[in-house]
Amino acid sequence: MTSQTNKLPVGALIVLAAIGFTAITTELLPSGLLPRISADFKVSEATAGYLTAGYAAIIVVTVIPLSMALARIPRHFLLIALILAFAASNALVAVVTDFGAAMGSRVVGGIAHGLLWSAMAPFVARIVPAHLVGKALAIVFSGNSLGLAIGAPVGTALGNLLGWRSAFLVLAGSGVVLALLAVWLLPPVRRLPDAPHPSLRKAIGQPGVKIVAIGWPLMLMAHFALFTYIAPFLREVRLPDFSIPLSISILGVAGLVGIWIAGITVDSKPRRWHLITVAGVVLSLLLLPLVGTALPGVTLAGMSGADLALPAALVLMFVWGTGIGAMGIYNQSAILRAGGEYRDAANGLTVLTIQVGITIGAMFGAAALTWAGPALVPVAAAIPATIAFVLILMGRRHAYPPGPKERVSGP
Length: 411
What we know:
Blueprint: H1 10-32, H2 34-41, H3 45-48, H4 50-69, H5 75-95, H6 99-127, H7 133-162, H8 164-185, H9 200-205, H10 209-227, H11 230-236, H12 243-265, H13 270-287, E1 299-300, E2 303-304, H14 305-339, H15 343-371, H16 377-394
Antiparallel strand pairs: 1-2
Helix pairs in contact: 1-4, 1-6, 1-7, 1-8, 4-6, 4-15, 5-6, 5-8, 6-15, 7-8, 7-12, 7-14, 10-14, 10-15, 10-16, 12-13, 12-14, 13-14, 13-16, 14-15
């Protein structure tokens, strides 16, 4: 039941962005509080890390079967239920005293996370006019970058100041408030009586779906291969310790810029700008190791290479973060278009492959760290990003076609 006006339901989109913010913050928060969590539960930090790894693993296992099983539930009811599940998960993590119970609570959050992202984009596509879907997705997915840039760092600071359990309780309370706002602002969207039943097999058979379902995770594999090990890389290239939290914030802010770029181009020139932003990611990853080797001998405007190294690294990270923020919007729009009448199943497929890409990315980064050393992790990360760039070039006809303003001369 898509709106026929040219107006966006701004209130609903902001609520969805806030729900996405909560989901990303929930996923990332344990990473910043591992020492406190491990000490509290009397387990090693490696064991405490399962609170994040298990969260991602349960998404891979459950997202497609549960998305299909719950396909007939009205989307606005499902989204409200999912944010309440996040609230319950975070509240339970905050109050349990046994690590096994905390893991079980995180499993609840992981299941909700996978279902949320499989339902979110198709819901947005049904409440806005077709020609404004890209802009609407840009608003909604800004919550992701805000979760990375603000949610995770602020949650970590709050946890260190008041105790890690307090941070999870704040997230739980925020979830309850968002559920109430969702009841008020999310329009009812029911499944059309003649809509095809979600079919993963038929979704995969749609032209272009396989390319997007592979290319998108490859970009996230590249991102997390380096992002997971950003601290050892920065130390290896002799940048100061304060550059670590600064880099994470730069990546988050850059992600917002990327979302803005995608928001104003995804409905008109998606192919051209997708190629530009992905090329920027590849180039920045290839150049990042040079800040620790080439710049020490450089002098510019009275500044030594050592003085230039940090600004140069931050500029490259800004380009990297911009491309990652933008590619999410381009790929989300691409999978909805390629999936056609089976868009829900196609979107569920990408939720699964994305989590696989993130998991493999962290493992790939660990292998690069071990075998090539911290300085070359960005170069290793550039490999899947380059493959994704090639897939975008190959997918001109169905996966990543030109937009209405680039059909004649676009690349």
